[in-house]
Amino acid sequence: MGRLFLISLEGKIYSCKHCQAHLAVSDDIVSKAFHCKHGRAYLFNKAVNVTVGIKEERLMITGMHTVSDIFCVGCGSIVGWKYDAAHEKAQKYKEGKIVLERFKLTGPDGSRYWVTHDAHMGGSDADDA
């Protein structure tokens, strides 16, 4: 196994809660109104220190999407998903963007997010309403 090189970010950073690898900066947040099986999630323009899994079709609150799970390269944890394609015209803005689950992150102020009692416990869903 080779040596792991992680990208370090500057500013208000969101990190993996397991290994503290930098994942994204708050300036790249598109929306904080997304939801996943553990509660809230954020839509980012980009993320670093992640690998992309296999593409699959998922029916979400906003319709059918082609998505790939994304994994932290530091520890291998699933931290969210990437929108590869949106099947509905109104959802095309999501293509190429990354959703990071708040439950899997440490926030810029060092806070950790917890699963709320009102969290949807089904599959990963997005809602940008």
The backbone outline, from C-alpha atoms, is globular
At the first level of CATH, the class is Mainly Beta
Q: Unreliable stretches, pLDDT < 50, 5 or more residues?
A: 115-129
Mean pLDDT reading: 86
Number of helices: 0
Mind telling me the C-alpha Rg? 14 Å
Strand arrangement across the biggest beta sheet: 3-4-8-7-6-5
- Beta content comes to 35-45%
CATH architecture term: Beta Complex
Secondary-structure-based class equals mainly beta
Overall number of domains: 1
Q: Count the strands?
A: 9
From the N-terminal CA to the C-terminal CA, the straight-line distance is 44 Å
CATH superfamily assignment? Peptide methionine sulfoxide reductase
CATH topology: Metal Binding Protein, Guanine Nucleotide Exchange Factor, Chain A
Report the major sheet.
Answer: 6 strands, antiparallel
Order of helices and strands: EEEEEEEEE
Q: What level of helicity do the residues show?
A: under 10%
Name a few traits of the molecule.
129 residues; mainly beta; Metal Binding Protein, Guanine Nucleotide Exchange Factor, Chain A; six-stranded antiparallel sheet; three-stranded antiparallel sheet; 9 strands; 45% strand; disordered C terminus; zinc; Yippee
Please characterize this protein's 3D structure.
This is Protein yippee-like. By secondary structure, this protein is an all-beta fold. The chain has one domain: Metal Binding Protein, Guanine Nucleotide Exchange Factor, Chain A (Beta Complex), CATH 2.170.150. Helix content is 0%, strand content 45%. It contains no helices and 9 strands. The strands form 2 sheets. A 6-stranded antiparallel beta sheet has the order 3-4-8-7-6-5, with no helix packed on it. A 3-stranded antiparallel beta sheet has the order 2-1-9, with no helix packed on it. It is globular, with a radius of gyration of 14 Å.
